[in-house]
Design a protein that fits this description.
- Helices cover 62% and strands 3% of the residues.
- It is mainly alpha-helical.
- The strands form 2 sheets. Strands 3-5-4 form a 3-stranded mixed sheet, with helices on both faces. A two-stranded antiparallel ribbon has the order 1-2.
- Helix 23 packs across helix 26.
Length: 586
């Protein structure tokens, strides 16, 4: 049972978006957007190539204003749905599509485009318009693109939805009680090894009956992705994702190489963890075992105080922006029908972002609050640029959140004097990092293997997929932890592999980037703060490479990634020496 922690009544206020939820405002916004789209289409369809710089700037202004109305309505529908998933709500979609604009702009010859982009009238939209053109070599004709978009509803999207349905329907027999997959996986955090092992076994059993269906879905999605890459002429399965992330294939490869060459770091940690837990045959179901089972519950007030104090110690401006979220923009408590997990939603620039949590008073929840507020601060600062320039590519989307976590972690650690408490804190931090950097890259290696195998060998059996899965997981853990055959089917409930192929490395990218940036702050001190805030305020108005330069980071430098990993290496060393001091025998 969850105790009262003060978060129970912390609910967000969506009337800030639309004052009267039952009123016509949402509808009015959609009608207005519809009319704007119709106007844009009737005036510009087939004529984008004839526009001069000023005309182009006006067109983008207008598109942004229209898009803002649509996204505001969508935000409202989504946030309502997140706290009450039983209510499917109404989607907000436009009848008149404006896809033509990007396609026609992308079709403008390079020479003419460069000339236009050099014009001062397009200063604000330079990166946006350049970014649209990055897909130029891979675009199909407008009727083809339209068909692809429309067919996706009965193709790719349908398979993803089927996957979600069959996976959501998985029920686990947990000691005679029916549990959801999420509940059963939560038992892997139990301090009781017998509970963990039984839960793990029960999950394996529950994944079995639907495995052929999920294998078929995965095969279809892999094939669909291969087909897309073929007709659009991408050089590899990951190339389109990298282009979407505005990062070069070489930079991504440098990240992957750097992380896989330091698999000794997670291995060292799990060896130590086995010793701390007193288990000499650690297996995959023990990964999440707590090393400090009796951590104290944190009240909502304390969590808020800790995070805001930590933020303030870095920058008062950052703390002030974060404080505003506590005035009606956070939905904190878990409740029946509410979506699991946590997120920060940017809303739209004309409104304030929102944060959803499932706060239960664990120390992890405090870090989640710090994480989501990091996103929130980033969104508030970047929203000043307007919709099209605010949102960052995936690769930079996690920088502010992990940075916020790191600042908060530093604060909590500095206040913990007890060596046992320090070890628990550092251990928790290392595990978060293992999950967000090493495990994501291990999963990226799995994706790399199966995408290539599907292209070379045709349809893959569950066993072949399982082989790639087990191998790429074993690579990461080395001999520190046994990955048993029970784990063979555990790839098959992970949604990212289905809905966004190639997504997972972006977590590792963002996490390592944030660690390396934080290391810079530690070195430079207060003088670093303005450049960091400048980075956040720049949103997605430039490429990750250019934005990195704002904080003195060169993403194309292979040593940059190694420097981030060194921070983790040092954390593990500190955990090792704390453990040795405590037991004297490690
Ligand atoms: Zn995040």
């Amino acid at each position: 049972m969850t105790m009262v922690n003060g978060a129970e009544d912390v609910r967000w206020d969506l009337t800030r978006l639309y004052e009267n939820p039952e009123g016509e405002e949402v509808h009015d916004d959609l009608i207005a957007a519809e009319q704007m789209a119709e106007g844009i289409r009737s005036r510009l369809h087939g004529r984008v190539a004839e526009l001069d710089a000023a005309g182009l700037a006006d067109a983008v202004d207008e598109l942004q204003a229209m898009q803002e109305k649509v996204e505001k309505a969508q935000t409202y529908a989504y946030l309502n749905f997140a706290t009450d998933t039983g209510d499917p709500g109404r989607g907000a979609f436009l009848q008149h599509d404006v896809l033509f604009f990007e396609l026609e702009w992308a079709a403008v010859p390079d020479e003419r485009a460069d000339e236009l982009l050099a014009d001062a009238a397009l200063e604000e939209w330079r990166h946006f318009l350049k970014a649209v053109r990055r897909f130029r070599p891979h675009l199909l004709t407008e009727p083809e693109e339209k068909l692809v978009t429309e067919k996706a509803v009965t193709g790719r999207s349908a398979w993803v939805r089927l996957f979600t349905q069959v996976t959501d329907a998985v029920t686990v027999d947990l000691d005679g009680e029916k549990a959801t997959l999420e509940q059963a996986l939560a038992s892997l955090y139990s301090p009781d090894r017998a509970v963990r092992q039984r839960a793990g076994g029960a999950v394996t059993e529950a994944l079995q009956p639907g495995l052929p269906v999920r294998t078929y879905i995965f095969n279809t999605i892999l094939a669909d992705h291969a087909l897309d890459d073929r007709v659009r002429h991408y050089s590899s399965w990951i190339a389109a994702r990298n282009l979407g992330n505005e990062i070069s294939d070489d930079t991504v490869q440098a990240l992957v190489d750097a992380v896989t060459s330091r698999y000794d770091i997670p291995a060292r940690w799990y060896r130590l963890k086995g010793r701390l837990l007193g288990i000499d045959d650690l297996n995959e179901h023990d990964r999440y075992a707590p090393i400090d089972p009796d951590e104290a519950e944190v009240s909502w007030e304390d969590a808020r105080g800790t995070v805001l104090d930590a933020y303030r110690s870095f920058s008062p401006e950052m703390a002030d922006i974060a404080s505003e979220f506590f005035r009606g923009y956070i939905d904190a408590p878990p409740k029946p029908g509410k979506q699991g997990g946590a997120f920060a939603h940017p809303a739209v620039p004309s409104a304030h972002p929102y944060v959803m949590l499932n706060y239960t008073g664990r120390r992890r929840d405090v870090m989640t609050l710090a994480h989501e507020l990091g996103h929130g601060v980033h969104q508030v600062l970047a929203n000043k640029l307007g919709l099209f320039n605010a949102s960052t590519p995936l690769t930079l989307a996690e920088t502010a959140s992990i940075f916020g976590e790191t600042v908060t972690f530093g604060r909590i650690l500095s206040e913990e004097k007890d060596p046992k408490g320090r070890l628990a804190l550092i251990g928790g931090r290392i595990e978060d990092i293992c999950a967000s950097i090493f495990r994501q890259i291990a999963m990226n290696r799995f994706e790399d293997a199966v995408h290539n195998a599907r292209r070379d060998e045709g349809e893959l059996s569950s066993d072949v997929i399982a082989e790639h899965w087990i191998r790429t997981q074993r690579d990461m853990f080395g001999d520190s932890l046994t990955i048993t055959d029970e784990y063979k089917s555990w790839w098959s409930y992970i949604p990212h592999f289905m809905h966004t192929p190639g997504y997972v490395y972006a977590y590792a990218f963002g996490n390592l980037l944030a660690l390396a940036v934080y290391a810079r702050y530690e070195k430079e001190g207060a003088s670093f703060v303005p450049s960091y805030l400048q980075l956040l305020s720049a949103g997605g108005s430039d490429t990750p490479d250019e934005l990195g330069r704002l904080v003195g980071v060169d993403l194309s430098d292979p040593n940059f990634w190694s420097a981030g990993l060194q921070v983790v290496d040092e954390l593990v060393s500190e955990a090792e020496s704390l453990a040795a001091a405590q037991t004297g025998s490690l």
